[in-house]
Automatic annotation (TrEMBL):
Compositional bias (Basic residues): 403-413
Location of the region described as Disordered in the Swiss-Prot/TrEMBL record: 398-489, 560-579
GO MF term (any one): ATP binding
Lineage of the organism: Eukaryota, Metazoa, Ecdysozoa, Arthropoda, Hexapoda
Family: Belongs to the protein kinase superfamily.
Protein kinase domain span: 1-304
Protein's recorded name: Protein kinase domain-containing protein
Biased composition (Low complexity): 480-489
Compositionally skewed regions (Acidic residues) per UniProt: 444-468, 565-579
Listed PROSITE patterns: PROTEIN_KINASE_DOM
Organism: Zophobas morio
Length: 579
């Protein structure tokens, strides 16, 4: 199930509320297991969360874990070694601190958490040393793991003062079972430790069985990897001086092992709450852990590669971002830009971004400022519309000058000599047609119609033909004059002169006087071919009766605007009806 308060998963054990048996008259096995887990707390013992009754069932909620039997086949030798070490420390705690005996050490009583740690459970047969008797062993022997039960335990309990021999024997059986197919190639002294557990821990003479605490000094449990793991597990029990010395040298000690092994076994431990809040760890350990490698330059400085970081550490960081602790949040935000690319867009948008928006509303000004800088790192990934939201628009312009790249000049090709049968007039017309468009005159309204444009082109062509007939350069038979020599350069020069002359003639046409542009005074001769630039501006007045202006007959000429004076009607100007 999922705990909605802190969004962490839990495991729930379900048992019957009534069980037959001589040991379960007052409490069922699950109820006793729940009671002992709640009393005996240790980092290597399964963590108790809650328990309750419902519908003739008893429920026990513990930390997320699965039985060892479900995952033992997938465990490598190093993981098994670490797991046996954890179980051994839990038993030492029960024997030396709580003075109780577990009485059922086997794979069924061990659970594996999501980070790979082995936790001791199955506490239904726990009994204090003072209450341990042959009667209790006789009643419980049928329900305990058969192979882990000492055949002579009832006789030993009466003839010896020791009460820890039951767990010593069962632990020896456990070691032999989980290490039976392993060799020294994986871990040094593995075979020696397995033989020791078989011969010494299962010895018939109870007095010669060593205490479990002495096994912690065996070479099998004293290589560097196990020592680091053990210290991180027992971190709450260590002094400040021990923590400072440990974290000061931890980075160099971890470099002796493959990064995948370190990430899989130590990933969650290195990101635990006690490590994140330790000042020495913040300064000398976490900068190397929270910054994945991005290139060859980071290989010597940072520890985990990007793929390993994404697989083992990123899921843990997603959980930590939900923790509302100012110091932990500031630590993550200061390193956020280094590992932000290890999250997917969905994780950033659904998990990280909502938590950052919560931090913006905090009363801690420094936390708000760091959170805002972190939000800036999300904009290139998620986009401003997702991070900022709201209505946005383009309020700024780009004022940089536009740089036009220079085009390389092409070598001008020499004009080839014109063929003998080529008429220069035709080339002249082609040049004229390719000239840039003449700018519109000032005061022009609207656009020139297609008919007017076509008429203008025809008039220009007629002018060119008239000019060509008087041109002394061209002969009637179409042959070039003496100016057109075999040199192509001379032909091009003549064409340029002709075009220049025509443009000059067109520019020499002057506009009429301003008085002549007046509609009342404007008159043009039938023989005047000047182009009327204001023909589109002629007003059109529609009336039922035409009133003509009387003009002097001497000045009256026929033109487009020419009118004749006639006397019609008996009124001067418009009548009321026509108005």
């Amino acid at each position: 199930i999922t705990n909605s308060e802190n969004t962490t998963n839990l495991s729930v054990l379900v048992g019957e509320l009534f069980v037959d048996g001589p040991l379960w008259k007052t409490h069922t096995p699950l109820e006793k297991n729940s009671k002992h887990l709640m009393i005996y707390r240790h980092p290597c013992i399964l963590k108790y969360i809650s328990s309750w009754n419902k519908n003739s069932k008893y429920y026990l909620a513990v930390e997320e874990a699965v039985p060892l039997g479900h995952v033992l086949a997938k465990q490598n030798t190093l993981q098994i070694c670490i797991g046996l070490h954890s179980v051994l420390k839990a038993l030492c705690f029960l024997h030396e601190k709580a003075f109780v005996s577990h009485n059922n050490i086997c794979t069924a009583a061990i659970y594996v958490t999501k980070d790979g740690s082995w936790k001791l459970g199955g506490m239904e047969y726990v009994c204090k040393f003072g209450e341990l008797s042959s009667d209790f062993l006789k009643k419980s022997s049928n329900n305990r793991y058969n192979k882990a039960v000492d055949p002579n335990e009832e006789k030993h309990i009466q003839g010896s003062s020791r009460r820890d021999f039951i767990d010593i024997f069962s632990y020896g059986v456990l070691v032999c079972e989980v290490l039976k197919s392993k060799s020294d190639d994986d871990i040094p002294s593995l075979t020696a430790f397995r033989d020791f557990c078989k011969n010494s821990l299962q010895n018939i003479d109870v007095a010669t069985r060593p205490k479990l605490s002495t096994l912690l000094e065996h070479e099998f449990f004293n290589h560097e990897f196990i020592i680091i793991h053990s210290f991180l597990i027992e971190l709450p029990l260590k002094s400040d001086e021990e923590k400072t010395q440990f974290f000061h040298s931890l980075v160099e000690r971890l470099r002796a092992f493959p990064e995948v092994t370190v990430a899989s076994q130590f990933g969650n431990l290195l990101l635990s709450r006690l490590v994140l809040l330790n000042k020495t760890a913040q300064d000398e350990l976490l900068p190397f852990i929270l910054c994945p490698k991005e290139g060859s330059e980071d290989s010597a400085r940072n520890f985990f590669s990007e793929d390993v970081f994404r697989k083992f550490l990123t899921p843990k960081l997603l959980e930590i971002f939900c923790v509302r602790d100012a110091q932990i949040r500031l630590l993550l935000l200061n390193c956020f830009k280094y590992f932000v690319h290890t999250f997917t867009k969905e994780e950033l948008q659904s998990c990280i971004l909502p938590e950052l928006l919560v931090g913006v509303k905090d009363t801690n000004d420094y936390l708000v400022s760091v959170t805002l800088r972190t939000l800036a790192d999300l904009v290139p990934i998620l986009g401003a519309a997702t991070v900022i939201g709201g209505k946005r628009g383009k309020l700024f312009t780009d004022g940089r000058p536009v740089c036009h790249p220079r085009r390389p000049r092409k070598n001008s090709k020499k004009h080839e000599p014109a063929p003998a049968d080529t008429n220069p007039i035709i080339h002249t017309h082609q040049l004229i047609m390719n000239l840039p468009e003449r700018p519109r005159p000032d005061g022009e309204e609207g656009e020139t119609s297609a008919e007017e444009a076509e008429q203008s082109v025809e008039e220009d062509l007629d002018n060119w033909e008239d000019w060509g007939e008087t041109n002394p350069v061209v002969q009637d038979n179409g042959e070039s004059s003496s100016l057109h020599t075999n040199s192509s350069e001379s032909v091009a020069s003549v064409f340029e002169m002709e075009v220049t002359a025509q443009v000059s003639n067109s520019r020499k046409k002057s506009l009429p006087d301003i008085s002549e542009l007046d509609i009342k005074n404007q008159a043009s001769s039938e023989q005047n071919d000047d182009f009327d630039f204001f023909q589109d501006m002629e007003p059109v007045i529609e009336t039922s009766s035409k009133y003509l202006v009387k003009e002097d007959l001497e000045k009256s000429v026929s033109s487009k605007l020419g009118v004749e004076m006639t006397e019609e009607g008996g009124e001067d100007g418009w009548g009321e009806e026509e108005w």
